[in-house]
Write a structure and sequence with these properties.
single chain; 249 residues; mainly alpha; Four Helix Bundle (Hemerythrin (Met), subunit A); 2 domains; 69% helix
Length: 249
């Protein structure tokens, strides 16, 4: 099955929409799974997030993308959102006060809103990086994947790794890679999924396997190179020299 695309016909755009829907759905379902298994009174900190504030953060991040797509559909320029400090004690405290039932409900709702909003965009809106100046040369569909899939799945895997479940983190990331392949997601999206797998593998002590996965991820999505050069999840690979050839290529 073809995954590289030159141009975008009717079949390709339908396949892309299906991939967007499926990947957003996977992330949202995994959030519900985590909430169903985590204790409601689970302790956490800004350096090791509990399940409820983590999913609440994912939801907020996803909802920002919904607002962007609604602005596109309305013919206006979306608001700029400030960069989040994931180690902010103030942010963590605010997220941790939300009731579990509210967090679960809003997670599903935001995923559905994002799928619905993406479904109303034209092919030009999704694919043409010059159509909207605020995208700064990026494709909108990939931004949707970042906020609806890559970001939340990365946080979920990080949660399991930080809570002494590295094998589960790896299995989650492997599931995401398999799903991206099954959906025939474009190369950049599959690269993101493989990058999350590399981070999970590094956390599980699978250093050589993780380094190889980083190389594969960069091949599929060259923009990931910048993340690999600074991501603390891959620090052990950089410090051991395993990423030198990958990042220097």
């Amino acid at each position: 099955m073809r995954t590289r695309r030159r141009g975008c016909g009717v079949t390709d755009i339908l396949r892309l929409r299906a991939a967007i829907t499926g990947l957003i759905g996977l992330a949202a379902a995994e959030e519900q799974t985590l909430l169903a298994t985590a204790a409601a009174d689970e302790a956490g900190t800004a350096h090791q997030w509990a399940a409820i504030p983590l999913v609440a953060h994912n939801t907020d991040f996803r909802q920002q993308q919904v607002q962007r797509l609604e602005a596109v559909n309305g013919g206006t320029t979306p608001a700029e959102f400030t960069q989040v400090d994931h180690e902010s004690a103030e942010l963590y405290a605010a997220l941790a006060t939300r009731p579990a039932s509210q967090v679960a409900r809003e997670s599903w709702a935001s995923a559905g809103d994002l799928v619905a909003a993406a479904g109303t965009l034209s092919a030009a809106d999704l694919l043409d990086p010059t159509r909207h100046l605020w995208l700064r040369g990026r494709q909108l569909w990939l931004q949707v994947i970042v906020r609806g899939f890559w970001h939340p799945v990365g946080h979920l895997a990080e949660y399991y790794a930080n809570h002494l479940q590295p094998d589960r983190a790896v299995k989650l990331a492997e599931h995401a890679v398999t799903t991206a392949q099954y959906l025939a997601a474009p190369d950049p999206a599959r690269g993101m999924a493989i990058y999350n797998l590399a981070c999970a593998q590094a956390g599980a002590g699978l250093f050589d396997t993780a380094a190889a996965a980083v190389g594969e991820a960069i091949t599929l999505n060259p923009d990931i190179r910048a993340n690999a050069a600074r991501d603390r999840d891959l620090a052990v690979l950089r410090d051991s020299g395993r990423l030198a050839a990958v990042l220097g290529a």
